[in-house]
Amino acid sequence: MNLKQLKSFVLLLALATFGISKVSAQSAAYVDKYSPIAKEMMEEHGVPASVILAIAMHESGNGGSRVAKNLNNHFGVKGKNNSTVIRSAYKGYRSVLDSYDDFVGIVKRKKTTQSLFEKHPGEKYEAWVKAIARSGYSTSKGWTAKVIATIKRYHLDMFDNDSKQNKFSSTKK
């Protein structure tokens, strides 16, 4: 490897490291901000907080997508909006909390997830993510695996187990 290639490799490695740490910081900030809402939804409705957070993180790019910023839509829900800022097929909400409420309502109305509420209220997050995917919530290939990987990577299942814990440790990877 010559000097020019070595410099390019080091620069690429530095950029990749910065990009990964930036995403981790954005993820930690998102979890810190929205985990109390997800836990409240879990306590009120029974959907695991880890599932709510992971889907929101995945669908909204940790709250950074145009749809999340301009329409308060953190779950990629399609529908009408009155936005004059962006043209979109995604539903607009008055607040992020309204987006979270609507998502839980959608999950409760789907036939494929109703049994989780009725027969298996303490079911693990994997069953919830798979049932939500089967309901047609997302048609993207690999969606289920990506959402489950988000739960594992950021240890979001800790919010399912300890309803008193509300701080995300950004040191966990």
From TrEMBL:
InterPro entries: Glycosyl_Hydrolase_73, Lysozyme-like_dom_sf, MGlyc_endo_b_GlcNAc-like_dom. Residues 1-25 form the signal peptide. Coiled coil: none annotated. It comes from Sphingobacterium puteale. SMART domains: LYZ2. One of its GO terms (molecular function) is amidase activity. It comes from the Bacteria. Pfam families: Glucosaminidase. Keywords: Hydrolase, Signal. This is Hemagglutinin. Residues 17-160 form the Mannosyl-glycoprotein endo-beta-N-acetylglucosamidase-like domain.
